[in-house]
Design brief:
Pfam families: Acetate_kinase. Keywords: ATP-binding, Cytoplasm, Kinase, Nucleotide-binding, Transferase. It catalyses: butanoate + ATP = butanoyl phosphate + ADP. This is Probable butyrate kinase. InterPro entries: Aliphatic_acid_kin_short-chain, ATPase_NBD, Butyrate_kin. It is a single chain. The protein is of the alpha/beta class. It has 2 domains: about 5-135 and about 335-345, Nucleotidyltransferase, domain 5, CATH 3.30.420; about 140-330, ATPase, nucleotide binding domain (Nucleotidyltransferase, domain 5, 2-Layer Sandwich). Helix content is about 35%, strand content about 20%. It has 13 helices and 11 strands. It has helices at about 35-40, 50-60, 90-100, 110-125, 140-145, 160-170, 225-230, 235-245, 250, 255-265, 270-290, 310-320, 335-345; strands at about 5-10, 15-20, 25-35, 70-75, 85-90, 125-130, 180-185, 190-195, 200-205, 300-305, 325-330. The chain has a 6-stranded mixed beta sheet, with helices on both faces. Strands 9-8-7-10-11 form a 5-stranded mixed beta sheet, sandwiched between helices. The longest helix is centred in the C-terminal third of the chain and has 24 residues, at about 270-290. It starts with a strand and ends in a 21-residue tail after the last helix. About 45% of the residues are buried.
Amino acid sequence: MKKYKIFVINPGSTSTKLALYENATCLLSTNVFHDSSVLIKFPKINDQLMYRMMVIQKFIEDNHVDLTGVDAVVGRGGSCYAVESGIYEVSDQLLQDTREAKGGLYHVSMLGVQLARMVADEYGGRVFMMDPPIVDELCDEARLTGVSGIYRKAVSHALNEKACAKHHARVMHQDYDQVNYIVCHIDGGISITAHRHGRMIDGNDAGGGEGPFTPTRMGSMAVTDMLLYFKDKSPEDIRKLCYEAGGLSSYFHTSDADVIHRMVDEGDEKATLVWQAMIYQIVKYIGAMSTALKGQVDAILLTGGLLRFDDITNTIRKDCGWIAPVYAYPGEFEQDAMAQGALRVLRGEEQLKEYTGKPVWSGFDWD
């Protein structure tokens, strides 16, 4: 059996994750943390490109990695027009639309395909994107807002949530296309999605500031409060609170959850209340997704880096266990999912999706 070399690049709001695979076996990986106090110095996300590229170059140099002849470079995608779930070859059009955030998502995942192309330009290999945050499977009722012509976007940690759901279905000898799950990605960003028979029919707009506040994101606020707070601030100030300067970072001037949770362990009153409020908001959104599934929930799945703190899982089990059994998968499935997706394409086991340069959903007939 031919051995394929696959390099995976996964930029997140607080980290850059890199991994080198031979077929489905991970040979080497790293997870480099970036504090919000550093990232906030870059005026725009695209300005972080060379900073993140230096992280990749250091990983290659420190580990004496030879990427010559790499078969595929997979970048976490985002910010292009909304797409169907699947794996895509990165075209010039996809790259341009991502760089220009044509899909309306302003999130660091947009650097993934740009970095992947830069690596492939130097070492070779095909460039892929898989299940980016703008995978759109919303039901029609979930699209509308209370303002005519303004529609909610599908923005979630689709890559990890889809992979986690499919993994759990295999473990439980279930068919992902026949069950209903609530899947929660809990890390620098937090997304909580309702999966009905293999489709993510609803969820918070995790890239637009909707949902629980997180280590870096402000979460949902009343419009009247936002108008008052932002009356003397720029659109860029608003964007920063939505993706890197809000949430725990706003309270503590750091998004380092280890530092903040240490304060909780030491009995700091403010840190304890803020941390518990974050979990409280997660629980509320799980409840909302249970109603989106009409109470027919087979399991609640938790995944993401913040599950290294047991109090998060324990609180969700206590408060949401009456809805459905709660299962925890700490960490993430993202790197494995991207590598395995590329491997299936390289072996001819899965067809590539074509990026059309148009959103998978563009409005109702009456628009």
